[in-house]
Amino acid sequence: MKREIKYVALVPSYEPDEKLKKVVDDLKGKNFDVVVINDGSDLKYEKFFDDCGAKVISYPTNRGKGYAIKKGIEYVKDNYHDYIIVIVDSDGQHDSNDALNLCRYVEEHPDTLAIGKRLRKDNVPLRSKIGNSITKYVFSLATEEDIYDTQSGLRAFEEQLTEYMLETKGDRFEYEMNVLLGLKERNIKYKEIEIKTIYFDDNKGSHFNTIFDSTRIYSQIIKYRMKSILLFIFEFILFIILYKIKSKIIFSNVISGLVCASIGYFMIKNDRQKEQIFKTNLINIGKIVLSTIIIFVLSLKLNLFLSKFISEILMINLMHNVKSYFSNNEK
């Protein structure tokens, strides 16, 4: 007998307006249990929470969207069995039909995080369109994963991913980025599902602070790649030292490249990633050969160490494209 799974919608909300009740009503009309999290809103907003017609979790101080989501997940974990959680914004930007579609997909694929995919159409505010495009590119460069809509707040997951969602660090908007950054390391699948793109009044109601929240998000990406950044610096310094000793471009680049490739392999704890790196050893050898050629050619006109730097930047982009190609073919 097939078990009955309950769909639970978490609606984190900070200083909402009348759209909150419509969001709740639409979700309840699709047979969702709805849990609204009042993220420390001012007392003057209490009427919107009182009138929304859903279970409301409140705390006195604004802690951020990530904190609110985790409080909601904790509530569901303690009060439900056999559930699927979908996270829905309180400002009406997510359609209840899309939330339902994500939950249905997760029910068929319980080991997968479903992510709403908003296409960048003409009605998307310019600020959001530019910001989303930049974040997508930076995320892809850092993780070698091509997620189209890294900032989508509409996400659904089954009970077995609950612990991962609770363990993920971050209390504000960076939490949603950290969830994506941890997927590869934890071998968690994801699926982007196209959803409606809805914005009201040029998205002026958003509580996203372009400067502070963007800084939090990008700092998490930089932190995620810190080992690679340090390895990049180490290889560059090792190349300089070897060249000072031997004065040979080929020797210096090949040895520094092989040493850092070996260090990179042993720094990885995930067996699946090690297996993938092992399969791409030929690609790494090709990278070293190609970068050596580029350095040699550029050094005929430019400073040797500037040539090395340019070569490494080109190799980073090339390796990203190659790994993305093979990753997409595996999927």
Please explain how this structure is put together:
- With 331 residues, the protein is α/β, with parallel strands linked by helices.
- The longest helix is centred in the C-terminal third of the chain and has 27 residues, at 304-330.
- It has two domains: 6-198 and 206-224, Spore Coat Polysaccharide Biosynthesis Protein SpsA, Chain A, CATH 3.90.550.10; 226-330.
- It has helices at 19-29, 46-50, 65-79, 96-108, 126-143, 162-167, 174-181, 210-224, 226-246, 249-267, 271-279, 281-298, 304-330, and strands spanning 6-13, 33-39, 55-59, 83-87, 112-118, 155-158, 189-195.
- Strand 1, helix 1 and strand 2 (33-39) form a beta-alpha-beta unit.
- The chain has a seven-stranded mixed β-sheet with strand order 3-2-1-4-6-5-7, sandwiched between helices.
- The protein starts with 5 loop residues before the first strand and ends with a helix.
Summarize the helices and strands and which ones pair or pack:
Blueprint: E1 6-13, H1 19-29, E2 33-39, H2 46-50, E3 55-59, H3 65-79, E4 83-87, H4 96-108, E5 112-118, H5 126-143, E6 155-158, H6 162-167, H7 174-181, E7 189-195, H8 210-224, H9 226-246, H10 249-267, H11 271-279, H12 281-298, H13 304-330
